[in-house]
Specification:
mainly alpha, elongated, 32 helices, 703 residues, single chain
């Protein structure tokens, strides 16, 4: 065993990092609680043998056995594995004399350990144990209760940990808080290496406290863990400041994650349980000093964030109780990050050095918000707060370059929100005097106009304009009434002039304009006489006459037909051919498997448009439609389709012998009974118009 441990510990070891990582399975055997318990039994046995050899009348000497040597080595091995083999406790920069002294201290510390493994944690609260002995206890406990389950991938419950361990760790936190060394300006290298070792031990203590506390909270009836007291909270905050090597934080700095992590900070971030547990402590003591918890969680979110992080796992978990508690913690944290992002980006000149970190954190935050929305975890409280921040952030990012990926996520999250939540969030923005929302909108619209005036227009700027139209489309479709029409029409006019003067090549900007202008036509009746409205008519005719059957365009064409002014019969016939072809392709599963969900969502919109057409065309046009072989195939398909109620109504109308038809003059004005959804379709984020859920359904589930 000593040879195996020394092979990993000694600086002159020939093992590579890959070879060391391959030995972790063997290391886990040495760190398992059952093996350590067996070691302590051997320790008692050999100490008893040594005691029998004593002659009567002689003083009892200090007994050292082979188990003490192994325990001292295991403490070093635990520290080495905790750092992911990035540092070695036996540093070559130490002199030989100092290294020998450290080995002697570790051996003396091992001799102070209790006889029973179950009593090991009690040494942390002892007044007689040396700091070196307590440090060794922390290292051994960390290896047994943190590293062993992690390396062996064992699922452990609250019964895995001694009941006295959380209390002992809490008292030890208070002890080391009094012993934390003061910063020294001038000191030798040996001093700083000792400080780094202390930081690592502090990180191990916090990790142990996090793991044991969260495990005890799973069974709240049998093991009720009292909340932390103010002294303990303060000690945890000071310990965390010492670990990350930061004396003080200010709000602009605390938001940005650490660029470089020391060994101890890297341990906390790599073990994801600590940032999650720290957020639980943060909710208990939200103060300026407690922002260190936000700092740690933000660092973790940037380096290991996203939907696969521990935050994403908690949000997706369906269990109640323990996970429900931390779901609220994570969602509170996400709301705080979104609010701080709006503060950073609202300044006239955001700090360019920290802006990439802010964008990274915002991206991962939006991914987690999307996860919570999809999982149905957000109630009205969190959703309205999210909407307020997301609306401001989306408009702010429409003015900035190199932020289109993040803005896609923000706009997609807004499209997933209920209409009532978005409206309430907008009301909060309007009522907040610190947010000049109309100024932000005007600046975004002006920036879009400047971008479109360039020849040629850069691709990134086109994406910004497209995202602005997507955002405004969602805002209007959600039922927000106090948005100034002038701003909406202005961006439509700018895009319309650009499309009129550029080539006829189809782009995502064309498709977004179709939906955006169609929605504006309903909101602003005077828009029909504008230049961009005429561009809309031309673009619609071009798409209807094309051979492609794009689902997103089909949804725009459907709503356009139901909302456009009076059209000629040729228009209606062309639209009928286009939409019926698309519906037949949907029913025949023509589209790719990943597009099936979008096809099912767009299908009812197409059925509504076809039903609208047969009720508003003349008799001759209707006769032509009924005589078409395509219509017969459509009727046969709809007979067995469960796509929507309007599809069944359409089938009944087409099969009727006599159907009262209305002329074009009887066309009624369509109301906004559709919602705009931002979805990923054919490797791009695109808008689609789909049915709004009924009020009853909307109250029962998320949009």
């Amino acid at each position: 065993m000593l040879h195996f441990i020394d092979m990993l510990l000694l600086p002159q070891s020939t093992l590579s990092d890959q070879d060391r990582t391959g030995t972790l399975a063997d290391v886990s055997c040495l760190l398992s609680p059952s093996f350590l318990k067996l070691l302590f039994q051997y320790r008692r046995f050999f100490r008893a043998i040594a005691a029998k050899d004593l002659r009567p009348g002689f003083a009892v000497p200090t007994t050292v056995c082979w188990v003490d040597i192994i325990l001292a080595k295991l403490g070093d091995l635990s520290a080495l594995v905790a750092t992911d083999f990035h540092t070695s406790p036996s540093d070559e920069s130490f002199t030989n004399v100092f290294a020998v002294r450290q080995q002697e201290d570790r051996l003396k510390a091992a001799m102070q350990l209790p006889d029973n493994w179950d009593m090991l944690s009690s040494l942390l609260t002892s007044d007689r144990a040396s700091p070196a002995a307590k440090r060794l206890v922390v290292q051994v406990l960390f290896g047994s209760y943190v590293l062993y389950p992690r390396i062996s991938r064992s699922s452990v419950g609250h019964e895995f940990f001694p009941r006295s361990l959380p209390t002992a760790l809490t008292e030890h936190i208070l002890f080391i808080d009094r012993q934390t060394p003061e910063p020294v300006v001038i000191a030798g290298q040996g001093y700083w290496l000792l400080v780094e070792q202390d930081r690592l031990v502090h990180a191990m203590v916090l990790t142990l406290l996090a793991v044991t506390s969260m495990s005890m909270q799973i069974d709240t009836e049998a093991h009720s863990v009292p909340p932390f007291r103010p002294r303990t909270n303060s000690a945890i905050i000071r310990s965390l400041n010492f670990i990350v090597d930061k004396d003080d934080f200010t709000p602009p700095i605390i938001f940005c994650p650490l660029e470089e992590l020391n060994v101890a900070s890297s341990l906390l971030v790599r073990l994801s349980v600590v940032p999650l547990w720290c957020l639980g402590v943060w909710t208990e003591c939200q103060s300026f000093r407690a922002d260190i918890f936000i700092h740690l969680a933000t660092t973790y979110l940037r380096l290991h964030g996203g939907e696969s992080s521990v935050f994403g796992t908690v949000l997706s978990n369906q269990d109640s109780g323990f996970h429900s508690q931390y779901q609220h913690v994570v969602m509170t944290f996400l709301g705080e990050l979104l609010k701080r992002c709006t503060t950073v980006l609202s300044t006239d000149s955001p700090p360019t050095d920290s802006l990439p970190f802010v964008i990274d954190v915002l991206r991962n935050t939006c991914l987690l918000v999307r996860r919570s929305l999809i999982a149905g975890r957000c109630g009205s409280r969190y959703s309205i707060g999210y909407c307020k921040a997301l609306l401001v952030l989306a408009l702010q990012l429409c003015r900035m370059e190199q932020s289109t990926i993040v803005n896609n996520l923000i706009i997609q999250n807004l499209s997933l929100m209920r209409d009532s939540y978005v409206c309430e969030g907008w009301k909060l923005i309007r009522g907040d005097s610190s947010i000049p929302i109309q100024t932000i909108i005007d600046e975004a619209v002006a920036a879009a106009g400047v971008s479109l005036a360039q020849i040629p227009v850069e691709q990134d700027r086109l994406l910004q304009v497209q995202q602005l139209m997507q955002l405004l489309s969602i805002i209007v479709s959600k039922g927000i009434d106090d948005l100034e029409d002038q701003s909406v029409v202005c961006i439509a006019e700018s895009v319309g002039r650009n499309l009129h003067s550029t080539s006829r090549e189809k782009t995502l900007l064309h498709e977004t304009f179709l939906i955006f202008a169609t929605i504006i036509r309903q909101r602003c009746p005077g828009y029909n006489n504008s230049e961009s409205s005429q561009v809309l008519d031309v673009e619609m005719m071009r798409h209807i006459g094309s051979e492609t059957r794009d689902l997103v365009v089909a949804s725009a064409v459907s709503v356009y037909i139901m909302s456009a002014p009076l059209l000629e019969s040729s228009w209606y016939l062309g639209a009928w051919e286009y939409l019926s072809d698309t519906l037949l392709l949907i029913e025949s599963h023509f589209y790719e498997p990943e597009d099936e969900l979008l096809a099912l969502a767009v299908g009812p919109t197409i059925c509504d448009a076809l039903l609208f057409l047969v009720n508003h065309v003349g008799k001759h046009t209707m006769s032509y439609i009924r005589a078409s072989p395509k219509t017969k195939a459509l009727c046969k398909t709809l007979q067995y389709s469960v796509i929507c109620e309007s599809g069944r109504s359409l089938e009944r109308v087409l099969n009727a012998e006599q159907q009262e038809s209305h002329g074009p003059a009887a066309k009624s004005r369509w109301n906004l009974g559709y919602q705009v959804v931002l979805c990923e379709y054919r490797s791009a984020m695109r808008l689609a118009l789909v049915h709004k859920p009924s009020n009853k359904v909307g109250e029962e589930r998320e949009a």
